[in-house]
Predict the structure of alpha-1,2-Mannosidase.
Amino acid sequence: MFDHAYGSYMKYAYPADELMPLSCRGRVRGLEPSRGDIDDALGKFSLTLIDTLDTLVVLNKLDEFEDAVRKVVLDVRLDNDVVVSVFETNIRVLGGLLGGHIMADMLKVQGERLQWYKDELLHLARDLGYRLLPAFNTTSGLPYPRVNLRYGVLSPNSRTGTELDTCTACAGTMILEFAALSRLTQETVFEDTARRALDVLWEKRQKGNNLVGTVINIHNGDWVRRDSGVGAGIDSYYEYLMKAYILLGDDTYLDRFNAHYVAIMKYISQPPLLLNVHMHNPTVSIRSWMDSLLAFFPGLQVLRGDLKPAIETHEMLYQVTKQHKFLPEAFTSDFAVYWAQHPLRPEFAESTYFLYKATRDPYYLHVGKSIVESLNRHARVECGFAAVQDVRTGRHEDRMDSFFLAEMFKYLYLLFTEKRDLPLDIDDYIFTTEAHLLPLSLSTTRPPCPRNATVRRPWAQQGSRGTMLHEGLAEEEEIFTRSCPSAQTLFPNNPTFPYTIRDSHKHLPSLGTERLTLFSGIELPLHDTRAEPLEILKHLGLTLIPLSDGDVHMAGAQHKHEVSPVGVFTLKFIAELVSPPSKEPPGLSPLAVQVISPPFLGRMVLTAGPAQFGMDLTKEEHGVKGSLVQSEPYQACSTIANWEEVQGKIALAQRGGCMFAAKARNLQGVGASGVIFIDDVEGSRSEDMVPFQMAGDGSTDDIVIPLVFLFWKEGQTLLDALAHHRNVEVVLGAKLFLLGEDKEESPASQKDASELPHVEQERCFRGGWDQAVMEEASLSAPDDSWQPVPATQEH
């Protein structure tokens, strides 16, 4: 599999940054349509080759490795006039160069290969490090999110430096690579710079609970997004605190990680789920979906020695992958698809590898086998492996990210291989977040930085057992706070330990309506609350088992029983107990696109999903009104060709190609008054899908226009209307407007989108009358002769 992927890149793409596996050519920035922020990883520096260097050694492809090192030394230049992501360039390119140098140096010392090598990769890494340093020239010490490789940040030619904020992970995922660079070059500026950024994040945490937010202002340190979790935007910040302690031996990092970890397990972890909370009010989950990047977290818990929650969350993720073939980019708390893409991310394979190393349970070999089979069956194409655009349909995307070669194959190979067959002792190294290998021997080359130490309170404030307390840690240290216990120590002679944990998470809840029948002879006390009867069932040892007919029957721990009804009163209670879950995630209110121009006159109303950025339509009493125009290009990922038509109108743009925020900026920049994004998955419709909320890119304060999302079916309705009628006018908002006789809508003429009667919601929001209206419109007179009839309140 690796030979197919790497060989395809070298044959069809090199020296380009990435392979386009469907087109069988390389992706060169500037020559392909822009994908927005996704392209910030591309710097015209043969990204995939550099990112793959140490993978070649792990897989024993030493001839290919030496050839790849020669190519990097001879061909790669870093002084390109390109704006790149500081975060991505650090973990992929700087990490790749360092991992490659360490492998080359190891093989040279062994005396059989690379005798010509004179630290050229390290020199390139040092050059790149100095090109990234200007990003840290901020008041706070937190880095700008982007830097120009040639001109830095604040130069007139840099085309960057106007950003106000960055994600927590973006600022907090520098210490491993920068510290390794400092210790290999004896130039301390890199490690000191990365430490300073970590100090700021620690200082800006919510001190009452030790949580951090997702996006922070790089100038004043204020939190821009205050949601706190372990997934996108924060993930590798936690990872690097733990791994910095392991690599560098500085207790400061362990103290901080432990403080954060206690907070995560108290507020965010709801086994097996990991749900975001508000950092200032962490007792309530603020969203009901999870993103796939949190799949790394069980592996991090293994490093800490906390196996039970690691096994629980990993098992939940495995059940999701079995249900959808891959882990969707985001999924709801009841495991339905939320974002359907799968860009061949490796985090689930990473956690699988760590759990196998910790438990030696062959179960995890079978999990790895399922990953391999899914990749070969659903992602392998003629020229490599293609990302999956939609896990529900299997449609591919012309994309094979460099991390697929850097991480996925490394973790899978290490999962299945025997230690004796590796050309190095893998336990002498730690993995960066991009799975590059850094040697643990680096910890001996520089003492801890004393001024960076976490403030310790005096011994007078000891706990009951004399445990020293630390800033941010109001509780005594746990027994394993400063050690990594082995499974053999904690669970001697108990090989079934992982099985007993996994078994309770094998059965995901079925989606949709379920009804319940009880055994005869069981009587339950009925109360006003629902929680107590559930606890009674749990103590009876009863579990819910979804059956193929949609029913849910009760079963004991050992075997199933025939079931029979136990009375009308009890059944009525049960029906209420398992009432169908709402499709609408908590805190997510649906919006509406209402067509108000003739011949529709407000009768066509389409369900729309909101955005996490842009204008808040729920606060606009009268919505936002405008005429529709289709963007050219339709995906709006590059310069808008029909900008004169778009100006002052609501633009229609297709999903895909780049991030929503990039499209919104392009259209706002030419004067669009709003944007309706239309799903690119053919056949998707609101009645079948979980409500969709568009996420930003971490720095979206500049986007102020209203943005809504329509699934494909509803979007086609608008496109058809636009094709049939020269002017289509709509209102975007959270309320529906009943049209009257040229007078301002009164409160009585408005309806909240979530408060419509059930039948009207069916017809409005699920497209039940869309087709009827379209057919009526197609039979009507031409637009210029249409005369609307004054409506009455009954209308």
